[in-house]
Specification:
Helix content is 38%, strand content 17%. The N and C termini lie far apart (52 Å). The protein contains 16 helices and 17 strands. The protein has two domains: 282 residues, UDP-N-acetylmuramoyl-L-alanine:D-glutamate ligase (3-Layer(aba) Sandwich), CATH 3.40.1190; 142 residues, Protein-Tyrosine Phosphatase, Chain A. Strand 3 and strand 4 form a beta hairpin. With 435 residues, the chain is of the alpha/beta class. The strands form three sheets. Strands 4-3-2-5-1-6-7-8 form an eight-stranded mixed β-sheet, with helices on both faces. A six-stranded mixed β-sheet has the order 12-13-17-14-15-16.
Amino acid sequence: MNSLDSWLAHCERLHPHNIEMGLDRVRMVAERMSLHFDCPVFTVAGTNGKGSTCAMLEACLLQAGYRTGVYTSPHLVHFQERCRIHGETVEPDHLLPHFERVEQARLGGGSADAVSLTYFEFTTLAILSLMAASNLEAAILEVGLGGRLDAVNVLDADCAVITSIDLDHMDWLGADRESIGREKAGIMRTGRPVIVSDPVPPQSVLDHGLEIGADLWTLGRDFNFTGDKQQWGWAGRGRRYSGLAYPALRGANQLVNASGVLAALEAMRSRIPVTAQAVRNGLAMVELPGRFQIVPGQPALVLDVAHNPHAVAALTENLDAMGFYPTTHAVFGAMADKDVVPMLERVGGLVDRWYFCDLPTPRAASAEQLQLQLQASHQRPGVKAGTYTDPQSALDAAVAAADPADRIVVFGSFFTVGGVLKNGTPRLDAPHLSS
């Protein structure tokens, strides 16, 4: 196997399931690899806001001069987007020796010692191996699913961050916020800081922190933020910031994420100090595709990986704040296990035309299934809908139907947004639109 694609294909063949909860197998392979980090580790869990939190932490630490490594998932277009070293996406070839290292550790001394790993577990260990060998000064790890039994939890977080918690992946994590919160809380460690940036966290998160003796930081008690239309401020246990520019990541929900980031930096100040100027510059310069990303041009184009009702509610609020558009066109594709009807209903008051699309994964709902879900939801009279074979053809149809003053929103899954980004960021200033 001499390419990243061949290794990824190998990983897909190894295990009969996409997900198998439990850390025993991953921990065994990690121990065989002697996997460890010699720098502070930030681990970020939550339902929504994880990627934004990781990106803002990274940006502030980079501005402070630290060599950072970040692991996030899933990716939008290319697998290697899951790992950044010192702010740059890793080269595919740099990952190959680390896939080989995982394979050798997985096989052990022979077939009797071989360990079965899922695609996510194998690839996570490979990326962690690369990061551990990259002379980092700070590592930022995003949890893939849950927390307690997620592969990244084989490493002990020096600082855990738990972002907003809502209903998602309920087949695996539990049927309510308390159950889901209990799984997310599994990344906490005794005596170490835990930043809870959810404004109304499940009691299970707080209880677990107290039970294990973690240093619990909660929004509203240990840190807080205020803001007006021009700027915002933050106050924590021993530090405050005033007159901050809004984060470069758009959306009202990003202040909650940014507040958690500042709390994490404050909690770790004795080990990895960050100046106020680095915070200001980092928040002003952070970039993350697909998080309420507004692409310049006509019609307006919004890309957002919102893929559960809570995230779609935030997207709806942000769309509403954009102002008036004669017609809003929505390109939508989603996984089959998502609670689609509430998602369609939450944003439905703003959408005039739907463009449902198939996605290139067997886990996805078909465009026809999504259209049936629309018919089962409460929508305004006169809303139109069509089905398409992929996100790009759905976007092409929306562009063809849209006037320059209209708005197009692409959302529902990383696959949906990634499908329109695979050839680069779309430019909608087409000749027929600018006439």
